[in-house]
């Protein structure tokens, strides 16, 4: 038949119809015939409607005719935005709880499916944005990990597949009574970087896991006060910054260590 054209963006897809494998179309036809026989779908109104069990599939009703379509591999049918115009989106904000099934994956290389955002298997902080089977690698900001359930860079302790301690290279010590009295999440100095520090948060199962934070430019973490401070007040960190004006003391220059 004539080629079917579609316009595709990273976040969503608009199309008139998506071609599916013949065996899928046959299966869909049998399902829909059954539905028509039960009187559950009369196709009296033009528009796009969700499939009963498959999140990346939909029905198009046009002038009394029913056609099943499929979103591109990795995207799902947005039933809240697709009444008159078809819209396929990334699955992170679409409720597929009652439509849990997907078409067979057509993965390529680092892309488990042809479209979508996927975590790197070996690196919590790396992910791939897959565009029609081509994976573009991205890094999360330092200290964050890619959350493949939400499609965002997140705290490592909130990412199920990520070992926050191994990823950040820090294990939370047992807090002292003083720390628990004064801090909800006690902070600790980074062992190698004056401007960074860790806070340890309690998880729902009772374990404390680290999060990496940074002081504002021009300041460093002071282990004595457990707060960000002027470098001159922190032994060993006085010369952390390079030749730039210190925002704490105008006219004073700073030198960043190892930079």
From TrEMBL:
GO cellular component, one term: extracellular region
PROSITE patterns: CHIT_BIND_II
Annotated Pfam families: CBM_14
Entry keyword annotation includes Lyase: no
Keywords, comma-separated and alphabetical: Chitin-binding, Disulfide bond, Glycoprotein, Repeat, Signal
Database matches in InterPro entries: Chitin-bd_dom, Chitin-bd_dom_sf, Chitin_bind-dev_reg
Signal as UniProt keyword: yes
Chain ranges of the Chitin-binding type-2 domain: 38-98, 108-164, 169-239
GO molecular function, one term: chitin binding
PANTHER family registered for this protein in UniProt: CHITIN BINDING PERITROPHIN-A, CHITIN-BINDING TYPE-2 DOMAIN-CONTAINING PROTEIN-RELATED
Protein name in UniProt: Putative cuticular protein analogous to peritrophins 3-e
Originating organism: Amblyomma triste (Neotropical tick)
Organism lineage string: Eukaryota, Metazoa, Ecdysozoa, Arthropoda, Chelicerata
